[in-house]
Amino acid sequence: QxxxxxxxxxxPIKFHIxxxxxxxxxxxxxxxxxxxxxxxxxxxxxxxxxxYSLNYHLKPEPIRILNAYRVTDGFHxxxxxxxRTYIYRLVMGCAHYSEIPVFEKDFCWAPGRxxxxxxxxxxxxxxxxxxxxxxxxxxxxxxxxxxxPVRTIFQADIRPSSGFLSHHYEHRxxxxxxxxxxxxxxxxxxxxRMVGALVAVGxxxxxxxxxxxxxxxxxxxAFPPNAMAPPAGLFLKSVEY
Length: 241
Prior knowledge:
By secondary structure, the chain is α+β, with helices and mostly antiparallel strands. The chain has 2 domains: 1-58, no CATH class; 83-240, 2-Layer Sandwich (Alpha-Beta Plaits), CATH 3.30.70.660. Helices cover 19% and strands 20% of the residues. It has a 6-stranded mixed sheet with strand order 2-8-4-7-6-5, with helices on one face. Strands 1-3 form a two-stranded antiparallel sheet. Helix 3 packs across helix 4 and helix 3 (118-125) runs parallel beside helix 5. The mean pLDDT is 93. Its EC number is 5.4.99.12. Keywords: Isomerase, tRNA processing.
């Protein structure tokens, strides 16, 4: 918003963001909408002018404007979204977090306990797909009493991935994996709790069927203690309209 005020609008600009995330979570791509009212006689900004100008004033910030589109008055970045896609990055083969490659620090999670049973995690992930009451998979906050715990997950996949510059340290035997979740919306910390439960399956602390049982219990207190995944490995990949 500070960057946008440098565009000299005659009405203060407010950004409406599609999604909020926890501190420490990243976004490969997020979206927002804004209205810009220029002084009488001044033409509207083109998309290219808007991207260039905002990025010029965002130089010191860890954020960049990638695209801009003119939309109808009825569009809303949050409420018009059809789905949101998150990915969570895991690294296996690190006995301790200090063994995470320095360029991957704060961008993945090394759960420890050796390598995970990925086929078991993939079986367990399928219990999350569909429309369910995710009460067990949400953290409580001030909005909990006003929000429905029912959400729909369209996709829950676990696939091999690559690390940043990992071809230079192949001898270390590290494995990178991505957990991908796509849904219209998510309850508070749902993705981090789903990842934590799936990792517990991969470690043998839970069986795949326990994911189904956790869903059926519908009680956040039933979630395994200290199992929530940390924020560093989570990325908002895209918002679909």
